[in-house]
Amino acid sequence: MLVVELRAAVALLGRFPALSGVDLTVGAGETVLIRGPNGAGKTTLLRLCAGLVRPESGTVTVLGHDLGDGTGRRSVRRRVALLGHGAALYDDLTVVENLRFWARAAGLAAGSGPDGVDDRVGGALDRLAVPDRLVNQRASTLSEGQRRRVALAALVVRRPDLWLMDEPHAGLDQTGRDVVDGLVVEAVAAGGTVVVSSHELERVAALSPRVVTLAGGRVVDGPAGGPVGGGTG
Amino acid sequence: MGTILSDALLVAGRDLRIEARSRVVLDQVVPFSVLVLVLFGFALDADHHTLRTFAPGLFWVAVLLSALLAVQRSTALDRADGTDTALRMSGLSPASLFLGRAAAVYVQVVALQVVLVGGLLVFYGVDVEDPLLLVVAGLVAGVAVAAAGTLYGALASGLGVRETLLPILLLPVLAPVLIGATRAYEDALGSAAVDGWAWTGLLAVAALVLTVVGASAHGALVED
Predict the structure, then answer these.
(1) Furthest C-alpha separation in chain B
(2) By three-state DSSP, how is residue B135 classified?
(3) What is chain B's pLDDT, residue by residue, as a tens digit (224 residues)?
(4) Chain A residues with CB inside 8 Å of B224's CB?
(5) Residues of B at the A interface, defined by Cβ within 8 angstroms
């Protein structure tokens, strides 16, 4: 079953094409590394798959939703986690208040229970190894690495079907990087799908047998729907 | 509808909690509004009779200028650190986002009015002849100010323009609200013989229209 299917997808950044006729398929349970130089279109590709960018032409189908129309884009967002460049934390809220807000915003019920905010937030904090002393601190007091971890925790709370991660190791120490790798493995083991954009090719290549290279908004090597063989060069 | 309201409460609670922690409105906007009121007094170089005559208009100009700062603060909250993208990914409906933001701004605008009414009593020596009209007109006009401010704050943010453009976009839209609220307060404070309740009715219509338009249009404004 295909989770992501792009056919001749074109996406604009302002008035300029950031993606020009991209073909890409990602199956359920796959981990795919997107690599390429700065400005290659990696971030736009992830935002396109997240339903944040409207395809200018071609077809984009994610989790069965046609992202060519607004309804499809809005529907798919609930099932997708996008780790972008920002941590999406409110500086004047504490770590746990931030996580509770994003959990409630994702539609989780307040209170405890398996699908309640309390249990999900507690579980995510444990999974991301966020120290107890940070939980009730304001986000403004966190380091960049700590903010990144909390941002990941906010996504773990949602239990998405598709993970889109833009430079997930950026700003993290070794422990944090290991936690991210563990998250990717767990997500796939749970039936999820992961698309990672990263410059840390060796680290991500260990997680993903499939690498797709973008340059100038196009896929430039390997069949877009098949394995490339782990080349990371 | 229940989900929209509960989500709106979630957003309003977030904004008010952030305000309670950061105290931007309390420490900066409220002193600014009082300062505006005092400076009007200096500028007019007037006795209490003149100040009482012009008090309704001066009060509402001070409210609008101060509300602008509150709206800019509200808009800025969801522009930093990728929170705007996260909100679009969250599943919160644009209508609930609008209503929540507007509700938080509304609470702040009403709090500003309370302080400024105190300023009118102390600095301008006004007498309140119809307290009920004063309260109702203030509450209703506050809805219009909060709804228009939130709507145009989202518009300015969606256009990617600097917040300095917000006053140019917003103040012309609020001109009818300024006129209606001033007339209502002229009646409530006894400074002119007008039907303040009729003006309050018009304010209510404006508040309803701005709220409905804002909740409907917010989705288009926050999408790219």
Answers:
(1) 57
(2) helix
(3) 778 999 999 999 999 999 999 998 889 999 999 999 999 888 887 777 888 889 999 999 999 999 999 999 898 888 888 899 999 999 899 999 999 999 999 999 999 999 999 999 999 989 999 999 999 999 999 999 999 999 999 888 777 666 778 899 999 999 999 999 999 999 999 988 889 999 999 999 999 999 999 999 888 877 75
(4) 52-54
(5) 7, 10, 14, 17-18, 21-22, 77, 80-83, 85-92, 223-224
Name residue, tokens 């989705």.
Answer: B219
**CA distances to B33, B59, B125, B142, B181 from B41, in Å:** 13, 11, 11, 24, 20
Look up residue B20 and give its two tokens. Answer: 């309670």
> What is the count of residue pairs from A and B with beta carbons less than 8 Å apart?
67
Give B27 to chain A, closest Cα distance, Å. 15
For helices B83-90 and A70-77, the axis angle rounded to 10 degrees is: 100
Q: How far apart are CA A154 and CA A147, in angstroms?
A: 11
Q: Tell me, what amino acid is at B1?
A: M
CB contact under 8 A, A101 and B22: no
AA letter at B136: V
The type of residue at B105 is V
Tokens of B148: 């228009």
Q: Which residue of A has its CA nearest to B76?
A: A90
Q: Do A86 and B89 touch (CB under 8 A)?
A: no
pTM over 0.95: no
The answer to whether the Cβ–Cβ distance between A101 and B14 falls below 8 Å is yes
